[in-house]
Design brief:
Invasin domain-containing protein, Immunoglobulin-like, single chain, 5-stranded mixed sheet, 1 helix, Ig-like_fold, Invasin/intimin_cell_adhesion, mainly beta, 5-stranded antiparallel sheet, 419 residues
């Protein structure tokens, strides 16, 4: 029986090509080995070829030729490649082709390259979140996890953490239809800038987001400068917030202030350095009274009010005195030969002024400057001072009382005891 034997070492003898890949299913980053069987048109093996020069491998999945393979003949007409690493996940169709002087002969094999699964494969992370949104708004946070070759990594949803500083945010990421892409719903209620950091394994990425406050929902009369007293500027601070307590700015012109003791209709607020806080400077004119102040803002159909009460003291010190009157001058004869002077003192708003004995200067035409003892002889805005002068010489005195550069004079006769 006649036998046809293919010519060795001649690529033009090739008439059939068969390709196999082992394994045919693997994970991205793993390798497969190709086996190409070459036969002539009579099904005889073609041997002795240099496969690296003559066998062309093309990956149709990426439409690129595979380079860098080395070949060795491992059987009669069977050529085996060096390991071929499959980096890109997907269904790859590899084509082995041999070109002869008659034509081209090829065959294909399918390799399933699976996405990696698990944190150990993570090398890259991409984080997407809206750059700006409102307090309380639910937004989508998207995280893409990749291996070193850019393939999505599966099975890591529970390993993803989202933090702001040392605080771990409560968000549950879930898988999507795209391998390696995970989504979660994020809600932030504190207005301002937040630096968010997503972390998995050794990989992380940060995003700066801005959270805007909602519409105004509450007004607070926050503080009144301590020690408020008549004739001195008092700073009143109010805070406007949304329903989450975030400061709401831009409403200084809409806030009004009223007081049960004063007319504050001309008071206007200004923004402070704190978001959502506003300040107004108030000059109070009525002292020794309990004041009840109310801040009000009308926003659309809503009206917000806040009330605070505090004690407003009278001014202290002779510098506040703009006038006084001597209401009574009484001589008391006796061994000390005393005189009592009853004085009413007022500031420019007709309030009582708190004074000490050293604030008063009393001189006599007979005795010169005199020592004074002092006591308060009234209360509130009508308070008076009773001044007692002792050790006066007998005779007619012209007494001069001076307070803050203002003087009043009275005459008095001092009769010696027993006289």
């Amino acid at each position: 029986m006649p036998v046809t034997v293919a010519q060795q070492n001649d690529v033009n003898a090739v008439g059939r090509v068969h390709l196999e890949a082992t394994p045919g299913a693997l994970t991205a980053g793993e390798s497969t080995v190709l086996s190409v069987t070459l036969k002539d048109r009579y099904n005889n093996p073609v041997t002795g070829l240099s496969g690296g020069d003559l066998i062309i491998i093309k990956d149709l999945f990426v439409d690129e030729e595979v380079t860098g393979l080395s070949w060795r003949e491992t059987g009669s007409g069977i050529y085996t490649s060096s390991a071929l690493m499959m980096k890109l996940a997907g269904t790859h169709s590899l084509q082995a082709k041999v070109v002869t002087n008659i034509g081209e002969y090829d065959d294909s094999a399918t390799i399933q390259v699976n996405h990696p699964s698990g944190s150990r494969y993570v090398k890259q992370v991409e984080f997407k979140v809206p750059a700006e949104f409102n307090a309380g708004e639910e937004v989508t946070a998207e995280v893409t996890i990749k291996d070193e070759y850019g393939n999505g990594v599966a099975g890591v949803a529970e390993a993803i953490t989202l933090t702001e500083g040392a605080y771990v945010l409560n968000i549950n990421f879930r898988t999507t239809d795209t391998v390696g892409v995970y989504k979660g719903m994020l809600t932030l209620t504190k207005a301002g800038e937040h630096l968010l950091k997503v972390t998995i394994s050794e990989a992380n990425e940060t995003k700066l987001v801005k959270v805007n406050p909602l519409a105004a929902a509450a007004l607070y009369l926050k503080s009144i400068s301590a020690g408020a007293s008549v004739g001195e500027n008092t700073v009143v601070t109010v805070r406007l917030t949304d329903r989450f307590g975030n400061g709401v700015s831009g409403f200084a012109a809409d806030i009004r202030l009223s007081d049960d003791r004063e007319d504050l209709s001309d008071i206007r607020f200004r923004p402070s350095s704190v978001e959502g806080e506003y300040e107004a400077t108030v000059l109070l004119t009525r002292g020794a009274l309990q004041h009840t102040m109310t801040a009000t803002m009308i926003y659309g159909v809503d009206q917000f009010n806040s009330t605070k009460s505090w004690w407003v003291d009278v001014p202290s010190g002779s510098r506040h005195v703009v006038g006084f009157s001597i209401d009574d001058l009484q001589q008391r004869a006796g061994s000390n030969q005393q005189a009592d002077i009853l004085v009413s003192v007022r500031d420019r708003y007709d309030n009582h002024v708190r004074l000490n004995a050293s604030d008063f200067t009393i001189s006599s035409s007979l005795d010169g400057q005199l020592p004074v003892s002092l006591r308060v002889a009234g209360s509130g805005t009508t308070a008076q001072y009773s001044l007692t002068i002792i050790s006066l010489s007998p005779g007619r005195h012209t007494l001069t009382l001076t307070l803050n550069g203002i003087s009043e004079t009275r005459e008095i006769d001092i009769i010696p005891a027993g006289g």
